[in-house]
Structures are given as C-alpha cells and as structure tokens.
Amino acid sequence: EVQLLESGGGLVQPGRSLTLSCAASGFTFSSNAMNWVRQAPGKGLEWVSGISESGVTTHYADSVKGRFTISRDNSKNTLHLQMNSLRIEDTAVYYCAKGGGVAMTSWGQGTLVTVSS
Amino acid sequence: ERVMTQSPATLSVSPGERATLSCRASQSVSIHLAWYQQKPGQAPRLLIYGASTRATGIPARFSGSGSGTEFTLTISSLQSADFALYYCQQYNDWPLTFGGGTKVEIK
Description:
The complex is a heterodimer.
Chain A: E1 3-7, E2 10-12, E3 18-25, E4 34-39, E5 45-51, E6 58-60, E7 68-73, E8 78-83, E9 92-98, E10 106-107, E11 111-115
Parallel strand pairs in A: 2-11
Antiparallel strand pairs in A: 1-3, 3-8, 4-5, 4-9, 5-6, 7-8, 9-10, 9-11
Chain B: E1 4-7, E2 10-13, E3 19-25, E4 33-38, E5 45-49, E6 53-54, E7 62-67, E8 70-75, E9 85-90, E10 97-98, E11 102-106
Parallel strand pairs in B: 2-11
Antiparallel strand pairs in B: 1-3, 3-8, 4-5, 4-9, 5-6, 7-8, 9-10, 9-11
C-alpha cells in the first residue's frame, strides 16, 4: 500500500524558512516523479513544485520560484521542500503527491504551514 | 500557462440523479486531464486520468470524456458518498494547473 507522510509544518513568521518532508513507502520511490501541491484555507488546489525520478529536473510555480527548492533523497525514500522568504499567502496545507507530468495517483494527508507574525 | 476553468461552481443534485461537471482548458491539453475528488478534511483522490480512464478502485458510475479543451466528468447515479468537491487538472505541460473546483451538494 502506497503511503506518503508529510511532516515539518507549523507556525512561522513572515520572511523565515521552513523545510517540509514527505516519507514514502509501499512503492519504488526512485522510479516515480513527485510533486508538492498546496491548498490555502477554504481555497482550491495549487500545484507548487515537481521533481523527476532522479532529482535532476525540477519545476516550480511562478508564485514560489526563487524561494522554494524541491529535492529528494532516493536512498531514504524522502521528498523535501525547502521554503525560504515565507509570505502570509504561503499559508496552506501542503500535500506531497506521487506522479509528476502525469496524474497524481497518491497523496499524503498534508501538513499545515501557517505564516503569521 | 494553461488555465483550467470548471463549471458550475456548485451543482445541486438529488441522490440517484446524474451529475455532469465541466472543465475547459485555455489551450489544448490533448487527453492529459485528470479528475480528483476531495471531501472535507481529506486529501484529494484520483478518479480519472487520461481524460477517460478510471483509476484503480473507482466505481463505474464515474466516467470521463473529452479531449483538447473540453472535458466532462459524469456521475451516473449520485450516492451519498459522492457529495464532495471535484477538481480537474491538466498534466500536458508545466506548470501543472488545476481548475477552481465544482462542489456537488445535496439538493
């Protein structure tokens, strides 16, 4: 059974940094592209970033380009999202999702990031 | 960027009736279109990919159609578990983009 478990969310002040992680199990992590998708409170889904199976190729939404960095450790089956210069509008539940450039077949339960002073 | 527009924003349907949800792309996405269902407090769940292929474990009452810029998700006979939010998403090109969602509510 595919499992994706996000961690690292919390309350952070504007301008500060936070790193999210997603622990994957139940599938061959190194053979699957991965994504981060977020959902602001009461709002719709917004794709944030994607990374290829090897980690060589990455993509970002314009709203986070230059501030967020996606990475992966295939030896530890873990996906990361380094978030710098956080803004109030980055407040959201962040989901990791399996599949990039294709439909997102599995999703974690999400981790809440709140950016507030 | 391909903008995805879903309509209607809210659909009021009685149990047992058919629901038809629409998704329009600003440029062609071929058949690289997925549909997701989301219930309150839960993560989205993949329903349809490739515009018309049901994901594993998805009941046959869910069907998808379309190609290019116009897509439809049909729920043939709504059950109580189907009242939820539905999103379309294109994966033809980066950035990946979602529609704004359609809420299917009980009439």
